[in-house]
Amino acid sequence: MLIEFFCTLRKHGLKTSITELMDLLSALEKQVVFADVEAFYYLARLTLVKDESQFDRFDRAFAEYFEGVEQVDLSSAIPEDWLRRSLQRQLTDDDKAKLQSMGGLDELLKAFQERMKEQQERHAGGNKWIGTGGTSPFGAYGYNPEGIRIGQDGSNARRAVKVWDKREFRDLDTDGELNNRTMQLALRKLRKFARTGSAEELDLDETIRATSQKAGLLDLKWRPERHNAVKVLLLFDVGGSMDDFIYECQQLFAAARSEFKHLEFYYFHNCVYEDVWQSNERRFSEKTSTRELINKYGRDYKLIFVGDATMGPYEIAYPGGSVEHWNEEPGQLWMRRLLNHFDNAVWLNPQPLEHWKWHHSIDMMHELMGARMYPMTLDGISEAITTLLKKSVATAPVS
Amino acid sequence: MRFSSTSSYIVADELALAVNAAVTLEKPLLLKGEPGTGKTRLAEELAASLGVPLLRWQIKSTTKAQQGLYEYDAVSRLRDSQLGSDKVHDIANYIKPGKLWQAFTAPERPVLLIDEIDKADIEFPNDLLHELDQMEFHVYETGEQVTAKHRPIVVITSNNEKELPDAFLRRCFFHYINFPDAETLAQIVRVHHPDIQRELLQTALEVFFDVRKLPNLKKKPSTSELIDWLKLLLVEDIGVRDLKASNGLMPMFGALLKNEQDVQLVEKLAFMTRRRES
After folding, report:
1. Model ipTM?
2. Terminal CA-CA length for chain A
3. DSSP letters along chain B, please?
4. Which CATH superfamily is domain B13-177 in?
5. pLDDT digits (tens, 9 = 90+) for B92-109
6. Under 8 Å CB-to-CB from A129, ≥6 apart: which residues?
7. pLDDT digits (tens, 9 = 90+) for A267-319
8. In chain B, what residues touch A42 (CB-CB under 8 Å)?
């Protein structure tokens, strides 16, 4: 029972286990919910998903599974006159003219149903929520089930479709998948990194206890300090030539995020200029000036750049070199300012090491970084971490 | 027995379902959500509605799993031994049961709240795996085995400061308390302030959601802040007109905004809208 459902979830990358499936089944057995799709949705989510960042994935999987189950329901069971009415209400004169050219309403309805079927098949491929083109006669209104208001029909099952189709947890899905073994190892390295820098301290309670257990003979106990001492500021290159590597970067990001108490991240494009931003959608409206970064975060923050450093050399060296905007000062000046402020900094480059020599800009960046650029591999990451933990390294002064 | 909204606490359908499922299947229920969405309140209300005692284990950054089971007070034993007390021969006199022990041995099935589990060390949840799963543990000093008479209803809250280990999550049911929508929020407010004028509530909610929508706010106001704010509005007898007329900061903003930078941000935005309007 529900094996197919379980497999669909796993296919969408949810890390649910058999134990959890058993929990769900026993909940059903005890009739916690009964014959109510919406309640089933909540129950399944409750038992199978353990993190709100996975909710969106769950919604997609659920939609896929249930649309598979209800396909008949949706494409053939929609009463034709209901469709007709709904369409007529919404058609403009323009559409009606097009309608004529398509051979009348009946043809249109047929085309519509075909289109809808096709749309559902494409759901399975995961394209449902990516915007659809506007050339179809239905385009203006949207021909997915929600668009024709199946969702507002009032019946229970249909209302339920809305719940997962809302996908309100989309923003929470920052999680790159970590099931890949090398990333797990990198994570372990980062975790170790997160815990270093904290010295041992005298554990007074334990010492008193141990001493009294030995009836008064002094027995000193030590423990590592509990908090994560390392503070990290991450700067990510997004867009352009980095798109190929975004996936890898996000994995690293997801790994890093859970491990540090003080972890700040910002994005930049190609080279750091006067502004960085935290949200890609709002990158033009909500910027943070790089100067503010320098003022806000202490020099003890470890600065990590993640980027491929593949760009035109003028993007680093000249004012106005940025591909996106007019920069008053060259990127290298901003790089130097950052490097001057932060004691420890490294650059992680997802480009394979052997390609580096083909890009002049990588050379330049490498030099700017004082040779602290490392490939984004396991070894690269551990080398980078070692460098980060060294006492401050001399950097090039602002010229 | 099914848990549902009470006269003082509004619970969303899916949350009620989560609670009922956890109670029926005797699984710990892990609650996450923005601060102020009533995670801790839920445990209190659940205990009250079932008429059972609530045991509350507040986790701090220094809390260890062992403290929830029991603590061996070796220091008083040492002192007693120097004073020549007879108690000293029985080590059980110096074992102090923790919250889990209390919950396991309670005469009726209690609600055990493990509050803010994410505050603790990263290994903390792992140390409790067996105890929460089997509901039993061993006391090394006395060789005693403590087993739960009734499996307590365990509610765990987290503010998402740290990620919890997978093995721990597998043993829990998980529910994320979403921020309530305007309608539910109006319901919640009516429960707390039954005599608030409809219109005032409407306007106040609009202001509240506008503030929440502002980008870059350091701390978004949550339900509990809204309720405090309304209380102030009522006490100070501020009418709808005053609320609308105030074209700078909203009156009594201190209850909503807890951060000086936020206050400045809202002030600046209000100033800009005013200028655009004029």
Report:
1. 0.70
2. 70
3. -----BTTB---HHHHHHHHHHHHHT--EEEEESTTSSHHHHHHHHHHHHT--EEEEE--TT--HHHHHEEE-HHHHHHHHHHT-GGGG-GGGGEEE-HHHHHHH-SS--EEEEE-GGGS-TTHHHHTHHHHHHSEEEETTTTEEEE-SS--EEEEEE-SSSPPPHHHHHTSEEEEEPPP-HHHHHHHHHHH-TT--HHHHHHHHHHHHHHHH-TT-SS---HHHHHHHHHHHHHTT--HHHHHH--SSPTTGGGT--SHHHHHHHHHHHHHHHHHH-
4. P-loop containing nucleotide triphosphate hydrolases (3.40.50.300)
5. 889 999 999 999 998 889
6. A167
7. 888 888 888 887 766 566 778 888 888 888 888 888 888 888 888 888 888 88
8. 13-14, 17-18
Q: What's the 3-state SS for A233-283?
A: EEEEECCHHHHHHHHHHHHHHHHHHCCCCEEEEEEEECECCCEEECCCCCC
Nearest CB neighbour to B170, from listed A17, A168, A208: A17
Report how far residue A86's alpha carbon sits from residue A98's, in angstroms, rounded to the nearest whole number: 17
Whole-angstrom distance, CA of residue A210 vs CA of residue B11: 49
Which residue, chain included where needed, has tokens 């009418």?
B239
Query: CA-nearest residue of chain A to B72?
Result: A209
**pTM assigned to the model:** 0.54
Across the range A23-30, mean pLDDT stands at: 86
**Spans of all domains in chain B:** 13-177, 182-277
CB contact under 8 A, B75 and A208: yes
Q: Residue A141: is it exposed, middle or buried by C-beta count within 10 angstroms (0-12/13-18/19+)?
A: middle
Distances, alpha carbon A161 to alpha carbons A80, A146, A164, B18, B182, in Å = 21, 9, 6, 20, 22
Which of A20, A42, A62, A159 to mutate against chain B (most B CBs within 10 Å)?
Answer: A42
Q: What is the mean pLDDT of residues A125-144?
A: 36
Out of B163, B164, B175, the one facing A46 most closely (by C-beta) is: B175
Q: Judge whether residue A98 has pLDDT over 80.
A: no
